Amino acid sequence: MTLYQNLADRLREHIQHDFYKPGDRLPSVRQLAQEHGVSISTVQEAYRQLEQDTLVEARPKSGYFVCARNKDSLPSISRPPQRPLEVSQWEEVLNMLMIRSNNKGVQLQHAMPDMTAPTLKPLLKTLSDLTKQKPELGLGYADIRGTEELRTQLCRLAVASGCQLHPDDVVVTSGCQEALSVCLRAVTEPGDIIAIESPSFYGSMQAIKAANLKAMEIPTHPETGISLEALELALDQWPIKAIFVTPTCNNPMGYTMPDDKKEQLYRLAQSYDIAIIEDDIYGDISYQFPRPKTIKSFDTDGRVLLCSSFSKTIAPGMRVGWIAPGRYRDKVTHVKYVSSSMCPVLPQLAIAKFIRLGGYAKHIRQMRQHYEQQRDHLLRAIKTYLPSDTRVSYPDGSFILWVELQTNIDSMKLVEACREAGVGFAPGPLFSATGKYRNCFRLNFSEQSAEKREWAIKILAKVLHGVDTQTKL
């Protein structure tokens, strides 16, 4: 990495961690050159990089200033139907999932982490060694709650999110999807109503469908998350059994709810005496420091069921997730038993060692920085090539973002046209119970190279350019 890139990254980190706030004047070129022992041209190039990222702006005879975020370019606040609905869209979700088997072109629809990172090599070596040296560990039954080694390490990780857990408070699952499904079945009966953000992860929607529940979609802000006012109105009007949220590095919008709103959400659930199912699968790859708190960290009476996994931080193929179910531990353990009994042991032991020896912390530090750079590159490409009225989210973490186009664009038809040109993305209707957000879609910026992603955005722009704005695509 060059000197100007190092300097630009340092300044970028200061800006994103609010050391320099929007509107602040940044140090002069000469001052930075002296402080960092670099040339004037190095500082100028660093500032030029930050200008391209729309993080700073140059003002004549005044210097460089931190840009204010353009809130007008963020996606609109969602306005879902104001009644509980049955979830549909399974066929569309299945069709998209099957594309993984034909991975030609640039596929940006799957929320997959970068699994080529060299920081994963110690984990792979540990897993290989266990398979060779102690293969018998992978053949027999084990603790239904998961290995004690892993549960102990999960409790250590939970401290960063504000939680104080004991290994007996944790149940290991086969990924986060099973964790969410188990929690839904543990706190509901068929026909119950679940309050959920809108848009929301299609896997969450399909878990609601599989449990024969109804989804009450709640209006959601692209920066601060679920509307507590709208949620309270819904709680007054409908017999909602639980609240299902992804408040940290949300999928698909990318926002992180402020801590005070998380606590207010918990107090609201407490006043109505209902459960909260909290999906924290992206929490560890938040760009913020310190890592954001979970709603679970405010939980004093065990009503929050915290779910997560290593599918987004390490690799989905490990199939290691977990639940901190609070007061619902016995019910969750029973549902987990009848669902899949125990989880494979070797991946649990390998990940536990990876955490214990510091490999996980090192991996996460590098991936946070990597994904943040990838986000900035994709945002630049979107700003450069897509229509000027395109709205796009600004993720606080993870590796996905949400794009909103003109209302006359149908993303279900757009995705078909782009797929023929070798580009895939996740169309908006998958993230709603009834197929809303037809002019929206989700992009992943972790797997492909920057060059391939930029090519994909150019193809998308080319397809959009051929659309007659008077008719739907």
Automatic annotation (TrEMBL):
Q: Which UniProt keywords apply?
A: Aminotransferase, DNA-binding, Pyridoxal phosphate, Transcription, Transcription regulation, Transferase
Pfam short name (any one): Aminotran_1_2
- The HTH gntR-type domain covers 1-69
**What SUPFAM superfamilies does its record include?**
PLP-dependent transferases, Winged helix' DNA-binding domain
The UniProt GO MF terms for this protein read: DNA binding; DNA-binding transcription factor activity; pyridoxal phosphate binding; transaminase activity
Domain of life of the source: Bacteria
Query: Which family, according to UniProt?
Result: In the C-terminal section; belongs to the class-I pyridoxal-phosphate-dependent aminotransferase family.
Protein name per Swiss-Prot or TrEMBL: PLP-dependent aminotransferase family protein
